[in-house]
């Protein structure tokens, strides 16, 4: 029998992580709608995926334990900071491509 795993929006699957992500992204002047964040519950934690750029074609994924989800640590912070920095850089690059004559 095959078990289907359901990917859920991070906001509902792990609200603590979502709040942490929103806080970090806001320091980079990014809105939560600039990223599509999902979480897949596994045996020993969550697989968190963030998709970003104008067409959501870029993505990063990382596994977090249940403890990290309940109490975000430095690894969680660094993951969201790297993602926010990449997202901001791509959005700026896409903007300049768009306004280029």
TrEMBL record:
This is Uncharacterized protein.
């Amino acid at each position: 029998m095959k078990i289907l795993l359901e990917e859920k929006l991070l906001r509902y699957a792990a609200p603590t992580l979502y709040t942490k992500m929103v806080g970090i992204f806001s320091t980079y002047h990014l809105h939560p709608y600039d990223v599509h964040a999902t979480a897949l519950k596994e045996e020993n934690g969550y697989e968190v995926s963030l998709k970003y750029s104008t067409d959501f074609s870029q993505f990063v994924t990382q596994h977090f334990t249940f403890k990290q989800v309940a109490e975000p640590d430095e690894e969680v912070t660094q993951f969201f900071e790297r993602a926010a920095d990449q997202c901001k850089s791509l959005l700026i690059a896409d903007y300049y491509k768009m306004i280029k004559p």
